[in-house]
Design brief:
Elements: H1 9-21, H2 24-42, H3 47-63, H4 66-88, H5 90-101, H6 105-118, H7 123-140, H8 145-154, H9 157-160, H10 167-174, H11 182-189, H12 194-208, H13 214-225, H14 241-261, H15 274-279, H16 283-305, H17 310-343, H18 346-356, H19 364-379, H20 382-396, H21 403-422, H22 427-436, H23 440-467, H24 473-499
Length: 500
């Protein structure tokens, strides 16, 4: 089973069960158990070996990984900050202020999109920050939590993958072979990242056209008829400043934390400039350093001003942890499932198919897009997909001046983000659910038709880009952009007319 299609079966089963049963914990565990069983069969292991692989090589190893632990700590600290802002009344005060300045439901959604675009440093940071800030506002204007989760998720990875200064740019640059400027190659690929740009365009079109379809429309109609509006329990006497200050402190200090880990503040030869520091940063450690510093600073601002009593501030720490327990459990299971598929050689199996494929080079970009989408969907990781497919793209198109080289690398990144975007076991999808306070399976089900709509258009656009690459990189880009943009706008307008 190792290195064959069977290596993808545990992830596929877990995803299918989650969508059918609408229960994610047991679905993920079934997938993990299936992966452990396959590994034990191939290794001719005993029953004890099966359990050892699941728990020792899987769950315990993933929860002791320094990167993963950093992400979990960041989640807990951010949950504590959100609990502090809610209890102090900062979130409610911001909601009251926003109601005076944001007059419509469309305005609340546009504000959410713009905030998501502004926070381009890291997708995890984006998901939880945008959710905590905009949830009170979108609740007031009866935007469903499912719609909020979609807006958050669509301004997380899709924004990071087209931002030169982000943890994602650093990851992609790291997968490029030695002797080549990975960040420069990443920047060249940005204009051809059709999925990311079309996802952003689709958000604006859907919001401005006041139009939703499939499962999302049902949740939007349901929240419109719901007379109740969620309000955070207010203990303190906070103002808008008491929400804005922690968020600004979080953004600034997390940025400083990331460039610190990348060597920006080092002396001598170890010193890196701002861009290089981002490229070499350890996002996990940087986010922990920044979020803890922001938490301490927030307490120093709250307590002396008596915005919130000291005892109430301390009680927000376990409250923040409780709020993130669901996300932490799903993440732990998702990481373990990925470990199971990795041990079965799922990545090598897909890479082998790509390397042995003998196709006309001009249609390879759209094929690479599909392969990256399927791999990221099955494994729940964009970065792992980059690591597998980008070196293959570079090997297939070794000439640096070949337009197909840039288009194929862009297709790889776009497909990985698309697969990550709709995968129930993706870190970003899980955190978008947590940030919006939305049921995870509901978020996946409502977002999936939107992702597939953009993915189909992106696939066709990559086909056009590949076929027109013989005219040169500039001409190919112009032709592809016109084709994809017209197709996106036209298809959504047609959907709206059909729905009426």
């Amino acid at each position: 089973m190792t290195g064959t299609f069977w290596s993808l079966v545990p992830a596929i089963v877990a995803i299918a069960l989650a969508l059918i049963t609408k229960e994610v914990y047991s679905s993920l565990f079934v997938g993990i158990a299936l992966g452990g069983a396959f590994f034990a069969i191939d290794a001719h292991s005993s029953f004890s070996g099966f359990f050892t692989h699941i728990f020792s090589d899987g769950l315990i190893k993933q929860l002791s990984d320094s990167w993963n632990v950093g992400i979990l700590v960041f989640l807990v600290v951010l949950g504590t900050l959100v609990a502090l802002m809610n209890s102090a009344g900062g979130s409610q005060a911001f909601g009251d202020w926003a109601k005076k300045h944001i007059k419509t439901k469309v305005g609340a959604q546009i504000a959410t999109i713009f905030l998501g675009i502004l926070i381009f440093i890291d997708d995890y940071f984006n998901c939880l920050t945008v959710g905590s800030v905009m949830r009170p506002v979108t609740d007031k204007y009866k935007v469903s939590r499912e719609k909020l989760a979609y807006l958050i998720d669509s301004t997380a990875a899709p924004i990071c993958i087209i931002a030169p200064i982000s943890s994602w740019a650093a990851a992609v640059a790291g997968f490029v072979s030695e002797g080549e400027n990975g960040l420069a190659l990443f920047c060249k690929a940005i204009p051809f990242n059709f999925y990311a740009f079309f996802t952003i365009g689709m958000m604006f079109l859907i919001v401005c056209l006041k139009f939703d379809f499939s499962q999302m429309a049902k949740f939007e109609e349901l929240v419109e008829t719901d007379e109740k509006t969620a309000e955070a329990e207010k203990i303190g006497r906070g103002r808008v400043f008491d929400l804005v200050f922690p968020i600004v402190a979080l953004i600034v200090l997390c940025t400083i934390g990331m460039i610190y880990t990348g060597g920006f503040f080092a002396s001598g030869e170890k010193h890196k400039n701002f861009v290089d520091a981002f490229a070499n940063s350890d996002a996990s450690v940087g986010l922990v350093l920044g979020s803890v510093a922001a938490l301490i600073l927030t307490l120093l601002v709250y307590i002396p001003r008596r915005v919130l009593p000291f005892k109430a501030c301390m009680s927000c720490i376990p409250e923040g942890f409780k709020a993130m327990v669901g996300a932490i459990l799903i993440l732990a299971f998702a990481w373990t499932l990925k470990a199971m598929t990795d041990s079965l050689g799922a990545a090598k199996y897909v890479a082998g198919i790509m390397e042995s494929a003998s196709l006309v080079k001009s249609i390879l970009p759209c094929v690479i897009f599909l392969v990256a989408l399927f791999l990221a969907f099955s494994t729940g990781t964009s970065w792992g997909t980059f690591g597998i497919l980008i070196p293959i793209c570079i090997a297939v198109f070794p000439e640096t001046g070949d337009p197909l080289r840039i288009i194929s690398i862009s297709a790889c990144m776009a497909g990985a983000v698309a697969g990550d975007h709709c995968s129930p076991i993706s870190d970003t999808t899980i955190m978008a659910s947590a940030g919006a306070g939305c049921d995870h399976v509901n978020h996946v089900q409502t977002q999936l038709p939107y992702v597939l709509h953009v993915a189909v258009i992106s696939f066709l656009t990559y086909l056009v880009a590949g076929l027109s690459s013989s005219f040169g990189i500039l001409a190919s880009g112009v032709i592809s952009w016109i084709f994809g943009s017209v197709l996106l706008a036209g298809s959504l307008i047609l959907r709206k007319k059909i729905r009426k």
